[in-house]
Amino acid sequence: MAPSRKSEALIPLQELDLQIHRLKVQRSEKPQLLGPRREKVARARSSLETLQAEIKAVRLESAKREKTVREFDEKINKLEEQARQLKRNEDYHAMMKEISGLKADRGRVEDGLLDLYMQLDEKSKLEKLRQEEVRAAEADLSEEQRKVDAEIAVIDAQIAELSSRRSALTAAVDPEMLRLYERVLRAKDDGVALAAAGKYEVIEEEGKAAYWQCEGCSVGLTSQDVNLLMAGRELQVCRNCSRILYLRPS
Ligand SMILES: [Zn+2]
After folding, report:
1. For ligand 1, a single-atom ion, which residues have Cβ within 5 Å?
2. Average of pLDDT values for 69-86?
3. Which of 57, 92, 167, 236 is the residue whose CA sits 20 to 30 A from 196?
């Protein structure tokens, strides 16, 4: 088929390109579906990390107190050793009083230690739950990722199929017009480079009046634009949105 110089020749190409454009938009929106699941994983990980930091702090505090208990033990043992060698009764009693004071202090540290062990026990149980939450959220995310990847693959196949049909359509279009069309297409984010000149009849006092407008941007066309378009000798673009104008085949 010889390339046509009339912009109507772009209609099938524009229809195809619009389908490709819509598929690309759909494709670009797919990864957003993962957002809430990614956030869930991040929240679960962060709450596990907070808990693990707490566990670390409790372990550190327990180790400190265990050391303190050992120091008390050593001190008490030493004093008990010394007490056995004391000859005078009052020296012995004074030493015993000191020892019992130390034992009371050690008891308080040990009580605190027991409380820490209980906290550790509870936090360790909670840690297992939190780890399970992280694993579940990660599994949920990767399942959704597989679904999204499969959907994207389907869209990619559709885009490839449509694109393969494109060259047959571009061959039917005048090369100069095609270049302009593709330039406008790249500049528009709605995938529309070809706009129909739409005719509207309005009843006015003087009778019926016809108005024309670009259906790409709804801005009115002058009668000169429309006459040139009807003559079909040269390409007409909308003065407002630069889209290539065409007349709907009647
Ligand atoms: Zn326009």
Report:
1. 214, 216-217, 238, 240-241
2. 95
3. 167
